[in-house]
Amino acid sequence: MEGFNKIDLEATPSKPADPIIVNNRPKVKAKRALPKKSLIILAILGAILLVFGLILIAPAQKAYSDAKKTFGQVKITVDALKKQNMNILTTRKLSFQN
Prior knowledge:
By secondary structure, the protein is an all-alpha fold. It is about 65% helix and about 0% strand. The longest helix has about 60 residues, at about 35-95. It starts with about 35 loop residues before the first helix and ends with a helix. About 0% of the residues are buried.
């Protein structure tokens, strides 16, 4: 066959390959430190969020507690109105029976 070189399989093997050295030591990961400017910006943003949180949480909590008080008062008022209507109906029934 033209264009192909004959491979001699019975030839003596060449020099053995060098042994592979395996390094089993764990790799130490490099610590990634944020730049100083990034830390300052993050601190400022955190402070702003904290201030807004304190400004918004206090009124929201007061509004929630006021709403619960109002709901309790409305419940008492509705119960009183129901009882008053029952009293009016019982007095009318008694007056119709006479």
